[in-house]
Amino acid sequence: MAADEKAQAKVEQTKGKAKEAAGRTVGNERLTAEGRADQVKGDARQAKEKTKDTFKH
Asked: pTM for this structure?
């Protein structure tokens, strides 16, 4: 399960970066903001998984 969560975190981060870049390219501030939000969610998920790993070992 942890590997799935880590993979999902990377997917969210990558999706967010793509959305942010697309939003900047077309000048869509909402899309840029959504991209940043997706990146933050991915970062939070990744931090949660790192914390779990730290206490596991």
From this structure: 0.82
